[in-house]
């Protein structure tokens, strides 16, 4: 595959994210806002939130459907949990933007979509948040649907969004078949990055990261065990955590993909090729980042 830089340990060590000094405080490491999950996949919120902290964020806020807020606050004592309007199905409503706008303005990164399964409200919520301004945002899962409907609204953010589709979701974004994506992933990832003026992470056994100007990186270190429920939620959180501590979106995406894959590699050696859980990735992320000089 031409025009693609391999994501090697050498590349990562030569391109470290902002370093955290011994005298830094939680404010200097940034605040991340997590909008994820719902009544059916509430655990996705925890996976994403913990992953953001493992990526280096200093402070954590969670926007939760009102009926889930208390439970999530107890499950994640490190977070400020904001109870927000919800849909009849128990997911965040697009009307939540009115409640969240001030919180968003105090954050250095946000992540929306992990675990959300209601396409229409998640997509509209993502579009309203994009238009509200605020920090760079990682957009995952059902939240990407709204961007499909109105690419020009997302493109106005010019490089501040990170989209994290797998091949099936990329097919939906680009209006093509999954086979088309598998056949020519680099071309389609570049087209998507140009259309939405976003960093695109096309997830797979060999993940591609493409910036809005077409620069591309390829991570070869995927492990089959990473193809498991919740794994993508962890990846989205890591990227958001790296952005919160000051990494530009493209660098955060490259480092996030690498840390996620290498965390899977550590588990595959210790537990087995398959069978490890997404929650087990969380304890591997910080050691991987530190080992590559990213602490």
Structure characterization notes:
By secondary structure, the chain is α/β, with parallel strands linked by helices. It has one domain (4-15, 24-291): Ribokinase (UDP-N-acetylmuramoyl-L-alanine:D-glutamate ligase), CATH 3.40.1190.20. It contains 13 helices and 10 strands. The chain has helices at 9-14, 43-54, 69-75, 97-105, 119-131, 144-149, 151-155, 167-174, 178-183, 185-196, 231-244, 249-270, 278-291; strands spanning 4-6, 31-35, 59-65, 79-84, 109-112, 137-139, 161-163, 199-202, 207-210, 216-219. It has a 10-stranded mixed beta sheet with strand order 1-10-9-8-7-6-5-2-3-4, sandwiched between helices. The longest helix is centred in the last third of the chain and has 22 residues, at 249-270. The radius of gyration is 17 Å and the shape is globular. 55% of the residues are buried.
Task: Set out the fold topology.
Layout: E1 4-6, H1 9-14, E2 31-35, H2 43-54, E3 59-65, H3 69-75, E4 79-84, H4 97-105, E5 109-112, H5 119-131, E6 137-139, H6 144-149, H7 151-155, E7 161-163, H8 167-174, H9 178-183, H10 185-196, E8 199-202, E9 207-210, E10 216-219, H11 231-244, H12 249-270, H13 278-291
Parallel strand pairs: 1-10, 2-3, 2-5, 3-4, 5-6, 6-7, 7-8
Antiparallel strand pairs: 8-9, 9-10
